[in-house]
């Protein structure tokens, strides 16, 4: 059995110099991966799934996304850009696909491929997989944030995840095969994926199943969108430039794949469901884990609202992007599918599109390797949680009373950091005001408790 990786790669970075300790990110995180310590947000890497909800809500720009330097493309003679359909759908209608292709070539790429070029290859493997596997419902592995969410928060459901490679990897396989048949040395080629989110960066850098990736680098979609838009405005390019895209057949299934219900269109079952937005997914998975759902064969789960069109690195409005992608699909002639190309590569892709290995659970509630000790800790957490106020105010530096109780048992946090416990102790002369201030400073920065602010506060109180 393949050995599980010890750590996740994380694309999200917290900048302590910009963090104001507002706790917005802590309260929004779906896996309770963030704490506030001495006025700064701290990330628990074992809990983080790179969904980007913290990035989306941070008002100070204190969370950034790690990405490869664009100049990295020049390390290769053949520079291939792998462009998701939602990338071109973000541009205004007046800008055509040919102009976008031309701009990408002008920026230094030698080949342009759309990520979803491989969707038609996946229809048969998808349906074979659904029919063959008894573990139901099967859960799509397309969204890396969802795969990691299941690993860390719903570990009993890891066996339900489909072991089929996402289109990004399947299209990369196709490109490699095509280059090898053309006699092009693969070590001279680099594939660069344009990502709409942080989770896909993490997925490329550290797959949950297989080691290594055919993807050479990951480019921030927002960054590349601005470069392409500027290139088009400066150089124009003909609207029908017939720019060589490499494998330019995109079907309706391909164009809609990254949108909500994109996968459902190819699954031949009436018992299927699509859910987007991370909290909606969590609510449903809780029901599924408790066996409180109806019979379902297939689940398409996406972390972002409107799926990839709503990714944190998308420049365009998610609703306009979705609308443009759907209109492009409606205007696409499926008869234009390159049958010769399809027939040539379909057997190879069908034989190599499965993920080999097992997605391992990474439970975030593991208290101790020793079962007896874990049971003691669980009992202690229950006891502490019972005396907490259950208002989940976050003043203790944890997102919920339950999380705070776990921190007390696991990390030695002080129960007196709870402001309600402080007031109870003060009323019983068990705690004085100076001790209270010291406790608050352990969670919140000194600036929030600056003595000089007291004069201004007194004035306000006396008004």
Structural commentary:
This protein has 463 residues and is an alpha/beta fold. It folds into three domains: 12-65, Alpha-Beta Plaits (2-Layer Sandwich), CATH 3.30.70.20; 70-352, no CATH class; 371-462, no CATH class. It has 18 helices and eleven strands. It has a four-stranded parallel sheet with strand order 6-5-8-9, with helices on both faces. Strands 7-11-10 form a three-stranded parallel sheet, covered by helices on one side. Helix 4 (97-106) packs across helix 9 (221-235), helix 5 crosses helix 13 (339-352) and helix 14 packs across helix 15. Residues 1-6 and 241-247 have low confidence and may be disordered.
How many β-strands, per DSSP?
11
Number of domains: 3
Arithmetic mean pLDDT: 89
Shape descriptor: globular
| Terminus-to-terminus distance | 70 Å
Spell out the helices and strands N to C: EHEEHEEHHEHEHHEHEHHEHEHHHHHHH
- pLDDT under 50 segments (min length 5)? 1-6, 241-247
List the helices and strands and how they pair.
Elements: E1 12-14, H1 24-28, E2 34-37, E3 40-43, H2 53-57, E4 63-65, E5 78-83, H3 85-88, H4 97-106, E6 111-114, H5 119-132, E7 138-139, H6 144-153, H7 167-181, E8 189-195, H8 198-205, E9 215-220, H9 221-235, H10 252-256, E10 272-276, H11 278-289, E11 298-302, H12 318-330, H13 339-352, H14 371-387, H15 401-411, H16 419-427, H17 433-443, H18 452-462
Parallel strand pairs: 5-6, 5-8, 7-11, 8-9, 10-11
Antiparallel strand pairs: 1-4, 2-3
């Amino acid at each position: 059995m393949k050995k599980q990786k010890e750590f996740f790669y994380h694309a999200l970075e917290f900048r302590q110099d910009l963090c104001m300790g507002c706790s917005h990110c802590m309260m929004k995180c779906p896996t309770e991966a963030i704490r506030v310590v001495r006025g700064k947000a701290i990330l628990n890497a074992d809990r983080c799934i790179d969904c980007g909800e913290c990035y989306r809500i941070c008002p100070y720009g204190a969370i950034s996304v790690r990405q490869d330097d664009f100049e990295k493309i020049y390390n290769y003679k053949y520079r291939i850009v792998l462009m998701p359909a939602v990338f071109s759908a973000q541009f205004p209608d007046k800008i055509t696909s040919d102009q976008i292709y031309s701009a990408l070539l002008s920026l230094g790429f030698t080949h342009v491929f759309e990520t979803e070029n491989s969707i038609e290859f996946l229809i048969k493997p998808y349906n074979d997989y659904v029919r063959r596997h008894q573990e139901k419902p099967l859960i799509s592995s397309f969204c890396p944030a969802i795969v990691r969410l299941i690993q860390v928060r719903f570990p009993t459901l890891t066996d339900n995840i489909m072991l089929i490679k996402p289109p990004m990897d399947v299209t990369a396989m196709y490109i490699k095969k095509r280059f090898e048949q053309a006699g092009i040395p693969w070590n001279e080629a680099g594939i660069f994926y344009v990502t709409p989110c942080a989770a896909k960066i993490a997925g490329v850098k550290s797959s949950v199943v297989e080691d290594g990736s055919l993807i050479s680098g990951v480019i921030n979609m927002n960054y590349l969108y601005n470069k392409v838009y500027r290139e088009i405005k400066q150089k124009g390019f003909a609207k029908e430039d017939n720019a060589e895209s490499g494998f330019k057949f995109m079907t309706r299934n391909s164009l809609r794949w990254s949108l909500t219900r994109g996968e459902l269109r190819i699954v031949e079952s009436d018992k299927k469901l699509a859910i987007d937005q991370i909290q909606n997914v969590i609510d449903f998975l809780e029901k599924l884990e408790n066996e409180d759902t109806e019979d379902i064969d297939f689940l398409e789960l996406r972390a972002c609202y409107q799926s990839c069109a709503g990714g944190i690195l998308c420049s365009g409005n998610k609703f306009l992007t979705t609308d443009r992608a759907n209109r492009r699909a409606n205007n696409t002639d499926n008869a234009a599918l390159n049958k010769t190309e399809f027939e040539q590569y379909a057997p190879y892709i069908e034989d190599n599109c499965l993920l080999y290995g097992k997605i391992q659970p990474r439970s975030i509630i593991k208290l101790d390797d020793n079962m007896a000790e874990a049971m003691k800790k669980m009992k202690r957490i229950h006891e502490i949680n019972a005396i907490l106020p259950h208002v989940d105010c976050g003043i203790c530096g944890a997102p919920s009373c339950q999380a705070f109780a776990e921190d007390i048992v696991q990390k030695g946090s002080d129960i007196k950091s709870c402001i309600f416990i402080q007031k109870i102790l003060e009323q019983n002369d068990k705690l004085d005001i100076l001790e209270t201030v010291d406790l608050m400073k352990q969670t919140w920065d000194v600036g929030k408790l600056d003595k000089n602010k007291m004069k201004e506060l007194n004035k306000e109180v006396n008004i």
